[in-house]
Structures are given as C-alpha cells and as structure tokens.
Design brief:
By secondary structure, the chain is of the alpha+beta class. It has nine helices and 23 strands.
C-alpha cells in the first residue's frame, strides 16, 4: 500500500538572524500582481494581491508577511483554504489540498485598511502618510505594511503594480509606467517590473508632482517634484546624466530601463532608494548642489542593492560600502576631492571612533551604522590600491554583469577580484577591513589614475 507523501509546515521565517520574524520558508515567489485602490484624503486602501509561487517541498501550510491590514478573502489555486490565521504580522494559510514539491501555485489575498508604518529597530518602516500624499520606504522590513509578501531580500520576484487614487495626484512606482487611465475623477497607474526585485524595494510614491525628463544616456531620468521647488530641483539634479555616465563606465551598464527621482514637499530625515527610484525631501534641495553626495549615493544603489541584492542582511556592507565609495568616485570625476583624499579623510575620522564593530557581521542594531558604510568603502579603496585600477574596475564590471538582478554574497565579490587580478590579495584586504574590529592603515600612495 502506498504511503501518503509527508507534507511540510512552511517556516514563518526566512531564517535570517537579523530579522528572525521576516520572510517565510517552503516556497519561492515568482511574481506579485498588486491592484491597489487608495483614498489619499482618508488613508484607506482596498487591494488584491495575486502571488505566483513555487513550492520548494511538499507543503501543507505556509505563511506570508502582512502587517496592520484586514484580510477579507484568501484562495489558493482558486480554492478557499482549510484555515487562515492572521496575527503577529503573519498570514498563515493551510490550503485545502497540500502543495506538491515543485508545484507552481497561485495565492489571491483580498485585503483592506488604513496602511501605516511598522515599528522596528530602525524606526517606522513602510507605508507613510505625507502632509499631502504617500511615501513608501520598505528597507529592511517595511513591505508587509502594504502588501502580503515573502519579505526577505533573497526571494526576488517580478511585479505588476496598479494603483488608483484621486486624479490630482501623480503616482510613481518601480519599473516603467505601462498604462494610465482616468475615470470619474480617479486615475489608475500601472507599472511593470520585469527584473526580479526584493519585496523591500517595492515602492509607491504619491504627491502633487510636476514631471521633468532629463535628456541623458543610457537612460533619461525623470524628476518628480512640487512645482514650488522647480528651480532648486533643476539646479541640483542638472548633472544626473553625467553621473549616470560616470557610474556606467565604472560599474557597468545601468541595470534598469528607467530611473526616477522624487522630491517630496515634506522634509525627510534621509534620502532613500528603491528599485529604479530615489526619494529626497524638500530639505535635500537647495539649488546649490548641496546634496550631490547624497544623489550619487542613492544612484549607486541601483547597481549595488537593487540589481545586486544581498543574500543575507549581515552583508549590508555590499550595498552601503559601494554606495559610499561611489560618492568618492563622483567627487573626483566632478572636480572635487580625489577618491584617495576622501579615503584618507574618512579613515582619520574613523580612527577617532570606537573600534568595536565588525563590518562583515555588524548585528541588526548596527547594520546601518556609518562605520559600516565608511569601512566598506575603505575596503574597496584598499583593494583598488593593491590591484590597480584596470583590474579593480574590470572586476566591478564583471561582478555586476555576472550577478545582474540576482543575489550576492561577499564571496561573489571576492571571486570577481580573484579573476580580474589573478591573485587572492583582495581576500586578505577585505578580511582586514570588514572581518576584524581593528582599523587597518591605507597605503600612502593614491591609485595611479582616476576611475574610468
């Protein structure tokens, strides 16, 4: 007599110690289709998420991350589940028919409510009301504030995002705008993300924005801003096309079909990036290029963070170290301090701070500590000094090409350095800068030439 195939109860965690309550086990998501109807005036959301996923094992139960919203209906492959429990930021689903290993399945979740940020070690994350509009900043665990998902960066998926709201507002989201229509005073905006994207990078921005496109290659960036800020925005982002050219030469081709910059009418504590987007507050524009460093940082994240996304949160330096180093590359290319001068300056600043952090594993409370950013950048500069510019930038371009739209680890980066330089010297340098608490010294000599 045949025995029934045992089924697994999918874990309600991706197993990442930095965010043990985030992510889920037993399946991987291929595509999210989000249809969102939103009322700006009352902060009311009515939505349907259709999630296409694949079971990694025979699966008798699985979960999704969803916080602060009410679930009206769930189906799995068109059938109501045996049981659905929604508590503690988890939607736990027991399908009527257990899922077979490798089976592709579809989950439809209808939900509603007043979306709001989720609390975390790093403050409030996710869907946030502005004075007149919405900002969504999901890093690292805010995505469940507005849609059900597998909220771990290692599980990347494609997206379609359709949002309908009052017609006077402009909506900006990830990926190209593929459709727009207005009916009865409400406008629907549809965006298509064909590159795999981590859930935390999904975003919608809503405001009374004017749009201006910058003529540039390899993409023409789009600026969205309150009309009152037109002049300082035009000045501060005038060199964005040149910045794209510098980074495309240094890091490889820009990874997405579009890049949009949003400047909100509100002040923001810090700028932020999402897949194909960068968001700044009105306090970040002054008409004097006072935020060039921040603009370079957020743009660089399109390569390092959004196309190449960490596999585990402990490797956050792979995002922030590169974005910080990009600031120094841009400063040099635009006639400011050389990358080497910046490296010496920031190494001296770090020397005055406590040396009690390991960049390769800073811990969840310190993962966004500025020392992670600066030491990560210094590690890259030290490798550049050791192997020379030709091998260094060849390695970076190979790294972004090989792992384009994928998930990465520190070993992936080291592999690119080994191939380009023909040595393992980068392994030792990275270990000194990111795997130990002590602060190494830099070579006194600068690299022989500026970034290509």
């Amino acid at each position: 007599m045949l025995q029934p195939t045992p089924t697994i109860l999918g874990s309600a965690s991706a197993g990442d110690p930095y965010l043990p309550a985030s992510g889920n086990g037993g399946y991987t998501v291929a595509h999210y289709d989000l249809e969102l109807d939103y009322r700006v005036a009352t902060n009311r959301l009515t939505a349907t998420a259709t999630i296409t996923a694949r079971a990694l094992t025979a699966l008798g139960r699985f979960s999704l991350d969803l916080a602060g919203l009410s679930v009206d209906k769930v189906t799995v492959n068109g059938v109501a589940p045996v049981k659905t429990v929604h508590a503690a930021r988890k939607l736990v689903i027991t399908p009527a028919v257990p899922l077979a290993a490798a089976e592709t399945f579809e989950v439809v979740v209808r939900y509603r409510g007043a979306p709001h940020p989720v609390r975390s070690h790093w403050g409030e994350l996710g869907w946030e009301e502005l004075t007149d509009g919405v900002l969504v900043a999901g890093q690292p665990s805010g995505a469940p504030s507005w849609f059900p998902c597998n909220d771990h960066p290692s599980d990347k998926a494609t997206f379609r995002i359709l949002l309908t709201c009052e017609a006077p507002y402009t909506v900006v989201s990830n990926g190209p705008l593929v459709a727009k229509s207005t009916r009865s005073g409400r406008t629907s905006w549809t965006f298509d993300v064909r590159e795999p994207m981590a859930a935390y990078l999904a975003s919608v921005q809503i405001g009374r924005y004017r749009r201006h496109d910058i003529a540039a290659t390899p993409v023409a960036p789009s600026l969205f801003f309150p009309p009152a800020l037109a002049r300082p925005v035009a000045v501060d982002f005038a060199r964005l096309g040149e910045m794209l050219t510098v980074f495309s030469e240094a890091f490889g081709p820009y990874p997405f079909p579009a890049f949009s910059v949003i400047v909100t009418a509100d002040d923001l504590e810090i700028p932020l990036e999402a897949h194909g987007l960068a968001v700044f507050g009105r306090n970040h524009v002054d008409g004097l290029h006072g935020s060039d460093r921040l603009i370079a940082h957020e743009l660089a994240h399109q390569w390092f963070g959004n196309s190449l996304t960490l596999t585990r949160w402990a490797d956050i330096w792979l995002h922030e170290g590169f974005a910080c180093y990009a600031e120094w590359i841009w400063a040099e290319a635009s006639g400011g301090l050389t990358a080497h001068a910046n490296a010496l300056l920031h190494r001296a600043e770090l020397d005055r701070l406590p040396k009690n952090i390991v960049v390769a594993d800073p811990g969840p409370h310190d993962m966004f500590d500025d020392r992670v950013y600066k030491r990560g950048a210094l590690a890259l500069h030290a490798v550049r000094q050791a192997i020379g510019d030709e091998a260094f930038f060849t390695a970076l371009r190979a790294y972004t090409r090989t792992h384009r739209h994928g998930s990465v680890t520190t070993d992936d980066l080291l592999g690119s350095f080994r191939i380009a330089s023909g040595t393992g010297v980068a392994d030792k340098i990275i270990a000194r800068w990111v795997s130990a608490k002590s602060l190494p010294r830099l070579q006194s000599a600068a690299p022989l030439e500026p970034a290509p």
